[in-house]
Design goal:
Helices cover 43% and strands 17% of the residues. It is an alpha/beta fold and 616 residues long. Helix 2 packs across helix 3 and helix 6 packs antiparallel against helix 19. The longest helix has 30 residues.
């Protein structure tokens, strides 16, 4: 896992100019958190590549940018991520005459491009974002993994392109304007993650499962993978067995590393199944799994059930750790840490935007920072809810019937007042979030294929599954990547393996809920390795602190901005709403708490990034 960046310019000599070298160095330096172990740059006349390395496989041999000479000119690669099938690809390439100087997956990817060109993407199993400068034809090839696990951005210039793992790398180049328009603000509040959208004007994401090629002829985009509808022929028992078979193979592949690794354990079905299988696999080699969980001071003792979370995580975490014999540690956070402006600043800097996840962003960042002291690689249960159907909205009649993104039904119930009320009224009218969201929804569902003979109910559930796998999960994957890489921790997501995603997506909902509950297939495939308490536990989302002191700290911080009425945050935030939310005796609802977090994030982002706002 690393940070990559680069600059292609067909109108200038990047190799000769000292200014361009200094600029590429600055772009590369922004990725230091993603790659604390090494740095490197490579220059050609019309291309420059930068790399920051987090060494995970072949520690001495995987330095980048990596080059490969050919009779017609060199290939140069910057690569972030992991190819979990690199061993098989290496053997196949060796059989075709390729010779390797290292044991790294990076070199395998470079030789695979030499052998198969852009078609190499279809052969990779993993999480990756990489760029290859092919000097044989003066073209840049940018490739992103199928599910969008690794982030990848680009910005077209008049004579080429800038790219990077994160927007901050691109924004370090003077050619990139720091502008956010109405559409960018819409993305900040809509909670839908429009494919390709990057918030910053002129900037785009390389979409998941996509190749973007840049040459003198311009920019060309090719999709090499998309979620497709196919018949599912297996019955219940065969489907459960196939899910287990896939999980065993996926987890074994993702445990491969030359550095300390661990699992993220929440006590839910997803992370517990993953941890238990990993523990059994490593136990056969005499090794214990290390596991980590987040908790809050007083959470277990003072926990109050609500509609979202019926139980605290910690007792279930400890049940799994005991049954699987993991070397476990709880990371216990307090409200001062969660509300600390330094933590909020680190989160904003990591994400480049005020993404609006509040204490769940801060706690994830602080959790990862503690884990990084002991491990370099962590396996996460992220995306299992999207794959297997775990969220409340999968079972909510209102969400099933809604002609919108199903998770927004939950948003409206719990935090709509904080999302809508916090925005300055004139801006809220200009944003027209309902219209923006509806257009995005209509576009999203238009691309879903219906299976011949599929019932209306199964078709409804297919759409809900598709939207979670192609929209919602990308919000969470981006969050997970940014918070982990901010501290140089590589997080792997076994449930995002495209083989598992494709297989389970096409299983009918009647199979996904065969026991009348959420995630039936995963429960059936892992019950034998789980404590009954966890196998039977009702889904509980990522934890959020219930400590009233946290909200009090938010209000104190917000009042500081109210004392500065000229602050640019009030171009976005409704000052009257903020005054009411921070008034003595104001009710601390989920909506008001969310609004306070959004206001503070926006204010800090404006201070840090100083974007030019185009709000008309």
């Amino acid at each position: 896992m690393c940070g990559i960046t680069g600059w292609v310019s067909f109108g200038r000599d990047l190799e000769a100019g000292q200014a361009s070298r200094a600029t590429v160095d600055a772009m590369t330096a922004t990725m230091a958190c993603r790659g604390p172990d090494d740095r490197g740059t490579w220059f050609a006349r019309h291309a420059a590549l930068g790399h920051r390395r987090l060494a995970v496989i072949d520690l001495p041999g995987g330095r980048q940018p990596m080059t490969l000479d050919t009779p017609d000119g060199p290939l140069a690669l910057v690569y972030s991520g992991e190819a979990y099938n690199f061993t098989e690809l290496r053997a196949e390439l060796a059989g075709r005459g390729h010779r390797f100087a290292t044991d790294s997956d990076t070199e395998v990817v470079l030789h695979a491009y030499l052998e198969w060109g852009e078609a190499l993407a279809e052969r990779l199993n993993g999480m990756y974002a990489f760029a290859i400068w092919d000097s044989r034809s003066d073209k840049l090839v940018m490739v992103r993994d199928r599910m969008g696990i690794k982030p990848f951005y680009y910005y077209q210039t008049p004579d080429g392109v800038l790219f990077g793992s994160e927007p901050k790398a691109i924004l370090a180049n003077p050619l990139a304007e720091h502008v956010v328009s109405l559409d960018g603000i819409r993305e900040l509040f809509a909670f839908i993650k429009t494919p390709g959208h990057a918030v910053w004007e002129g900037m785009r994401e390389v979409e998941p499962g996509t190749i973007v090629t840049v040459s003198r002829a311009g920019l060309r985009t090719t999709r090499y993978w998309a979620l497709q509808t196919r018949p599912h022929a297996d019955g219940k028992d065969a489907t459960v067995a196939r899910v287990r078979e896939l999980l065993e193979d996926i987890i074994a592949r993702q445990l491969v590393a030359d550095v300390p690794r661990c699992t993220l354990l929440s006590g839910g079905l997803d992370s517990s199944a993953m941890t238990a299988i990993a523990a059994r696999q490593l136990g056969q080699a005499g090794e214990r799994v290390r596991s980590f969980a987040v908790d809050f001071v007083g959470q277990a003792e003072n926990f109050v059930p609500d509609e979202m979370r019926a139980t605290p995580d910690t007792p279930y975490v400890h049940d799994v750790a005991a049954k699987s014999g993991t070397d476990h540690r709880d990371i216990v956070l307090n409200s001062d840490e969660l509300a600390d402006p330094a933590a909020r600043s680190a989160v904003i800097r990591a994400r480049d935007i005020p993404a609006g996840m509040g204490d769940m962003d801060a706690s994830l960042y602080l959790l990862f920072r503690s884990i990084r002291e002991e491990s370099t690689v962590a396996l996460s249960g992220e995306s299992a809810d999207e794959v297997f159907g775990g969220y409340q909205q999968f079972f909510d009649p209102e969400a099933r019937a809604a002609s919108t993104f199903p998770w927004l039904v939950q948003v409206r119930r719990h935090i709509a007042g904080g999302r809508d009320g916090v925005v300055e009224p004139g801006l809220a009218a200009a944003l027209d979030l309902p219209g923006y969201i509806q257009d995005a929804y209509d576009t999203s569902v238009a691309g879903i294929e219906r299976l011949d003979g599929e019932s209306d109910f199964e078709w409804t559930m297919r759409k809900i599954c598709y939207l979670h796998l192609t929209r919602f999960v990308r919000i969470l994957l981006d969050r997970k990547d940014r918070m982990s890489m901010a501290v140089g921790l590589e997080v792997r997501v076994p449930f995002c393996d495209h083989r598992l995603v494709e297989y389970v997506y096409n299983a009918p909902w009647s199979l996904k809920s065969y026991d009348g509950r959420e995630k039936s297939l995963l429960r059936g495939a892992s019950r034998d390795v789980l404590p009954d308490s966890v196998a039977d536990r009702v889904k509980s989302p990522y934890p959020s602190t219930q400590d009233p002191a946290y909200v009090a700290r938010l209000r104190d911080s917000a009042r500081e901005y109210l004392s500065s009425p000229g602050h640019p945050v009030f171009d976005i935030v409704n000052r009257d709403w903020l005054a009411r939310a921070t008034a003595p005796g104001a009710e601390a609802t989920m909506a008001s708490r969310y609004g306070l977090e959004r206001a503070l994030d926006l204010a800090l982002w404006l201070d840090m990034y100083k974007p030019v706002l185009k709000l008309s």
